[in-house]
Amino acid sequence: MCDHHHALQRAAGPGGEFRLHRRDIVRGLWTGSLVLGVAGAGGCESAGEFFAPTDDQLIMMSAEAWEQTKKETPVSKDARANRRLQTIGPKIAAVANRPNDAWEFVVFDSPDKNAFVLPGGKVGFYKGLLDFSDNDDQVAAVLGHEVGHVTARHAAQRMGQQQATSLGLAIGGAILGSSTKLPEDQKNAIMAIAGAGAVVGILLPFSRNNELDADRLGVDYMHAAGYDVRQSVRLWEKMGQNSDPGPGEWLSTHPSPQTRIAELREYINAKGYARL
Asked: Which one is catalytic: 146, 237, 249, 266?
């Protein structure tokens, strides 16, 4: 739904390396966009944490991307939209118990049905999504999701996972280059396939799991702040009705609306927040 996740999908070039500028990585780690093997899952998470930058490092890297975004995308002057976001956002942030984050909630004047968060608590909410939301509870669902990404350190984990995957591909390329007599074009083809496999088999599932984790945390924050958690399901029902099918879920950074609806229903019922 958001092209800022595409950095995760830049598969290896001919040599198998991920060609990512530092700023591109941060912009690619804009978690929480709502629009539309090497190791097992546990190993992926462990590798991501091992290579993950600290919060301070990531916040410094994010500052540039945030300021650039505010220069490139007009900030909305709609008083009602801004008042709405500034009312709901702090309520959700307050129950997340991260007092040291400098939360900033900005409405961008764009018709896109999208939202994103950067490490440190910089939340961008496009006016198109505000207008699309039926009520404040649905806005709270989006904001809870974004705050969940911050509290779970998903951006740091994703960067760490990219680093681990890139290192694994580089080591594999070195072994392939030194231990086989294959022609260069065949070696390049093998590494290209390995890079694509790493994206589809490791990075994309990792990203989808982050999204579902943020959905669950968002529901927790909605409930704690007094919002109707059932509206998180309704929001995704609307998203599913108004989004293009796109590629299969296995090729996406995000779960399908249908997956998110099913997971949210199960979680809300299990926690006893409501009956769906």
From this structure: 146
Distance CA(148)–CA(267), nearest Å, equals 15
Residues 6+ apart with CB under 8 A from 118: 26, 29, 30, 62, 65, 66, 124, 155
Q: pLDDT tens for residues 58-90?
A: 777 788 889 989 999 999 999 999 999 999 999
Q: Is the dihedral of CA 76, 97, 30, 72 positive or negative?
A: positive
Choose among 170, 175, 174: nearest CA to 195.
170
Separation of alpha carbons 196 and 181, rounded Å: 23
Q: Is 146 a catalytic residue?
A: yes
User: 20: which 2 tokens?
Assistant: 């990512």
What are 115-161's pLDDT values in tens digits? 998 888 899 999 999 999 999 999 999 999 999 988 988 776 776 66
Q: What angle do CA 153, 155, 160 make, to 5 degrees?
A: 95
Write b or e for each residue in 163-173: b if 16 or more Cβ atoms lie within 10 A of its Cβ, otherwise e. Answer: bbbbebbbebb
pTM of this structure: 0.71
Taking the C-alpha atoms of residue 220 and residue 264, their distance in angstroms, rounded to an integer, is 11
